[in-house]
Amino acid sequence: MEKKLICINCPIGCHLTAERSNDSDAWSVTGNRCPRGELYARNELTDPRRVVTATVRCNSELMPRLPVRSSEPLPKRYIDALLNRLYDMEVKIPVKRGEVLIANVENTGIDVIFSCDCGK
């Protein structure tokens, strides 16, 4: 089995080829210019993750939506449910940048935090 990927760890964007035989779980990665490319490909094929960025409604007339993000890349399988939860929320100000909105999403140890300050 062969998969083609483009590494997103840096601006170079190495074109990676990951291969594995049918009787093996191990991936062989080529095309990377640095070790980060190989690690990226292995992670993308076994447990893809993304940093989630979104906005939530708030009770501020000046800023009716506040930006939030995951504190770490979240497994992709949890992203849709998290986004639905965030889009249904309304928060009350004031909030501080880095303050936790949702702790330990799906027991991953990853939090959703505010990306900016918003006072009264």
Description:
With 120 residues, this protein is an alpha+beta fold. The chain folds into 2 domains: 2-46, no CATH class; 53-114, CPE0013-like fold (Roll). Helices cover 18% and strands 31% of the residues. It is built from 2 helices and 10 strands. The protein has helices at 35-46, 79-88, and strands spanning 2-6, 15-19, 28-30, 49-50, 53-58, 65-70, 74-75, 90-91, 100-102, 112-114. The protein has a 5-stranded mixed sheet. Strands 1-2-3 form a 3-stranded antiparallel sheet, covered by helices on one side. It is elongated. The model has no long low-confidence stretch (mean pLDDT 94).
Radius of gyration: 19 Å
- How many strands, which pairing sense, and closed or not: the largest β-sheet? 5 strands, mixed
The number of distinct helices, counting runs of at least 4 residues, comes to: 2
- Mind telling me which CATH architecture of the largest domain this is? Roll
CATH homology-level superfamily of the largest domain: CPE0013-like
Average pLDDT taken over every residue: 94
CA(first)-CA(last) distance = 56 Å
Read across the widest sheet, the strand sequence of neighbours is 8-5-6-10-9
The proportion of residues in beta strands is 25-35%
Number of domains: 2
Shape: elongated
Order of H and E elements: EEEHEEEEHEEE
Going by helix content, strand content and strand pairing, the class is alpha+beta
Helix share of residues? 10-25%
Please identify the top-level CATH class of the largest domain: Alpha Beta
**Total count of strands:** 10
